[in-house]
Write a structure and sequence with these properties.
By secondary structure, chain A is an alpha/beta fold. Chain A has eleven helices and seven strands. Chain A has two domains: about 350 residues, 3-Layer(aba) Sandwich (Rossmann fold); about 30 residues, no CATH class. In chain A, helix 1 packs antiparallel against helix 9 and helix 5 packs parallel to helix 6. In chain B, the strands form three sheets. In chain B, strands 3-2-4-5-7-6-12 form a seven-stranded mixed sheet, with helices on both faces. Chain B has a five-stranded mixed sheet with strand order 9-11-10-13-14, with helices on both faces. Chain B has a two-stranded antiparallel sheet with strand order 1-8. Classes of the chains: A alpha/beta, B alpha/beta.
């Protein structure tokens, strides 16, 4: 049976021991893709799901119709959020390695996705993130201490010890609770957007999943409902090329772009350089305006690269070419925005170094503050009684009995 | 015989079946080139090729549905669901389809699919990497449900399941992958090389479904359990110097009612222990059967030892886990009622 098989199996472009190969990534020159009117119909802008919206060129200049013409001050804020995300990730990774937290997921190389998109939205817009969107919490101003206390499952943990590290939420920040199961939040975001439409409000919902998770049926539920009801939603597929060891070809990216799923469902689909802060901002702003003016939902594919391991439980050296992210054709989002700001005369290496030092100090002092509320190994600890709370609004009798049994067992 | 941990034993079982039967294919997320996130399929794609050990999209419903279709067309798929917590997108395909294809087609079609999936807590996995959903599947008519407690049984049961013409959900308690675990997370880990059931025949052998294993003979009380709790219950009984008869069910559907009932009739006392939640859990089924079959032999009310009826909380893993203290409380109750 083996040697007769005619089954097609997608191939990863480069495995360990092979040279990195990104020739499969379809690129468009910066500035080359047209920017349709926000009321354009999905069928009249099919090329957006094939081409790649880019604003920053290789020299660091912003070009073309998608140039968002942001104030340099806003660009500096974006750079700060991305850099803080990266420094936070780096420190938390090291804390996991030191045994202080049980698990961690970095967003290295993908910082522009969360930061630029979040900056292009309004505070009242509801976010349904995945587990690699820490930049949205940072951009929305959630204190690092609060994020760290969640990682530590300590006495100030927003989840009261119930969730794995990085499964944050923020009611005040309009950021929904992360599940841990994949893609489930995507159709929920559409439901939130449908409710906004029903209530006559002009808030929108945005959600993020990886290209790997887009294989789940929930992805298709989201597109179907968004399209049928023209829900004010922005659905983002972060195509970082890898789902743990599984190359994006296995999620269906080999024959056609993920953005092209949008037109398939009758909604706008657009492919954007996910490492280009300006392009990500511009595309998200365009999609937001479409959503708010009733022009319908948008599927955005953010083409980026997972520069780090999937999580602290993963070792990518086992399945992909060594240092391949250094060869990624779309570069690094932090360095590209930095280069652009320097080109504008609004930034310098010295300022970058000073900002890096400032943010490292912020992360260090936040960690010190967070650990005072307890760590996995050192008190104070959360009261285990909390395990039984919040399952229902009011605790039923059988849980009260179990809570008493648990207390007796701990004595 | 060779010393193997549970991962190596499962790998050996799949290796043997891939070699023995060209219809056997493996499929799942990260199982091919990478060899699986728990390494259960390591080396098998290299050995048998990517057409027999197939990487899949992240789509559990798709994996199970495709496995059904492949099985109807003559293959014998072994599908891995990366964590039991991720099995629910495939729930409709398992409950409404896989379980009923033989029945609804009056035997004209059948689906010999084995679904392997790691379950259970104790690895700091939080609420989405720790669940024990076996009771959800035992409640569905038409699916066999298996959970081994050691490497020897894991391999023999897996081979039997792959050869079985009916669908099986095969739960692997991941806390036991690298060694037996007595419920105390503060003790140094013990490898399977120190345990008799870590000695595994390197060749083909079967462990039958529907046949429980009496792990330890005893006269004072019967402890009916499976998976990780086999080791926890044995340690608790030993610590309390109770002469417990410990029964490892191994297969929940079909269930070895004879072994359960002979033991309870002999001892007159019984504890049922599982890591899964209590309410409508599989333990309730065992209790009902004992009540129906052994009522007049019972000297004391039957005790249940289970996880609490909440999700598995990250910070309170060991307050949640039914450890030796919870087994001890149940033992004291069932023995004290003399």
């Amino acid at each position: 049976m083996n040697n007769q098989s005619r089954l097609h199996l997608p191939k990863a472009p480069a495995r360990p021991g092979e040279a990195p190969d990104f020739s499969y990534v379809q690129l468009s020159p910066a500035g080359a893709v047209r920017r349709p009117d926000i009321n354009a119909r999905a069928r009249d802008m099919m090329e957006l799901s094939v081409e790649l919206v880019r604003v920053l060129d290789d020299a660091g200049d912003a070009v073309g119709p998608w140039h968002p013409h942001l104030d340099p001050g806003d660009l500096q804020v974006g750079l700060r959020h991305m850099l803080l995300t990266r420094i936070y990730d780096d420190r938390m990774q090291r804390m996991q390695r030191a045994g202080k937290i049980s698990f961690y997921i970095r967003s290295l190389g993908e910082e522009a996705v969360s930061v630029a998109q979040c900056m292009a939205l309004r505070p009242g817009d509801m976010l349904f993130p995945s587990y690699r969107n820490q930049g949205v919490y940072i951009t929305r101003g959630i204190a690092l201490v609060d994020l760290m206390c969640q990682l530590l499952s300590n006495t100030r943990d927003m989840c009261k010890g119930r969730q794995l590290p990085v499964m944050y939420h923020s009611k005040a920040g309009n950021i929904f609770s992360i599940s841990g199961n994949l893609a489930t939040q995507f159709p929920q975001a559409v439901g939130w957007a449908m409710a906004a439409a029903i209530k006559g409000e002009d808030h929108l919902a945005a959600s993020w999943i990886g290209e790997g998770s887009s294989a789940e049926a929930d992805f298709h539920h989201a597109l179907l409902f968004a399209s049928v009801y023209q829900a004010p939603a922005i659905l983002n597929v972060v195509n970082n090329q890898w789902a743990i060891s599984t190359f994006q070809g296995y999620a269906g990216g080999e024959q056609r772009s993920f953005a092209a799923r949008g037109p398939g469902y009758g909604m706008a689909g657009i492919r954007v350089d996910g490492n280009d802060f300006l392009a990500v901002y511009a595309v998200t702003q365009w999609a937001a305006e479409r959503a708010r003016t009733g022009a319908g939902p948008t599927l955005i594919e953010l083409v980026t690269y997972r520069a780090a391991a999937h999580s602290t439980s993963d070792d990518p050296a086992r399945y992909r070419a060594k240092n391949d992210h250094e060869h990624w054709p779309l570069g690094d989002p932090v360095l590209r925005l930095k280069q652009h700001l320097i080109k504008l005369g609004e930034w310098s290496d010295a300022r970058h170094q000073a900002l890096t030092a400032e943010l490292e100090a912020l992360v260090a002092s936040s960690w010190k503050e967070a650990t005072a509320f307890g760590t996995m190994s050192e008190g104070p600890r959360l009261n285990a009684d909390l395990m039984f709370e919040d399952l229902f609004k009011e605790m039923p009798e059988h849980l009260k009995r179990q809570q008493a049994l648990m207390r007796a067992e701990r004595r | 015989m060779a010393s193997m941990n549970m991962i190596q034993a499962l790998n050996s079982g799949m290796d043997i079946m891939l070699g023995k039967d060209p219809a056997v294919v493996l499929m799942g997320e990260d199982i091919g080139y990478f060899g699986g996130v728990f390494r259960a399929t390591e080396g098998l794609q290299r050995k048998y090729g990517e057409h027999r050990v197939i990487d899949t999209p992240i789509a559990e419903g798709g994996i199970i549905a495709a496995a059904i279709g492949m099985s109807v067309n003559g293959l014998r798929p072994v599908a891995e669901i990366q964590f039991a917590d991720y099995i629910y997108p495939g729930f409709d395909q398992i409950c409404s389809e896989l379980a009923r294809i033989r029945y609804r087609s009056a035997g004209d079609f059948y689906a010999p699919v084995t679904i392997r999936t790691p379950c259970g807590g104790g690895i700091r996995g939080g609420q989405t990497h720790s669940q024990s959903p076996e009771g959800i599947f035992t409640h569905v008519s038409g699916i066999k449900v298996v959970m081994p407690s050691n490497p020897y049984d894991a391999k023999g049961l897996l081979i039997t399941c792959i050869e079985d013409d009916d669908p099986v959900v095969f739960f692997e308690p991941k806390r036991l992958y690298n060694g037996p675990f007595d419920g105390d997370p503060n003790k140094p880990a013990v490898p399977w090389s120190t345990h008799p059931k870590g000695q595994v025949d390197e060749g083909y052998y079967r462990v039958p479904l529907g046949k429980a294993d009496i792990v330890r003979g005893g006269s004072a009380v019967t402890i009916i359990t499976y998976g990780t709790m086999v080791h926890v219950a044995a340690a608790a009984a030993a610590a309390m110097r109770v002469d417990a008869e410990i029964i490892d069910l191994r297969s929940l559907v079909p269930l070895d009612v004879d072994t359960i009932c002979s033991s309870v009739k002999k001892t007159g006392r019984c504890i049922v222990a599982h890591e899964a939640t209590r309410f409508s859990g599989f333990g309730a089924e065992i209790l009902s059967i004992i009540q129906e079959e052994c009522f007049w032999y019972l000297e004391a009310p039957i005790q249940r030892v289970t996880g609490w009826d909440t999700p598995y909380p990250h910070a309170f893993e060991w307050e949640y886990f039914p450890g030796q203290a919870r087994v001890g409380t149940a033992l004291a109750a069932v023995m004290g009622a003399a």
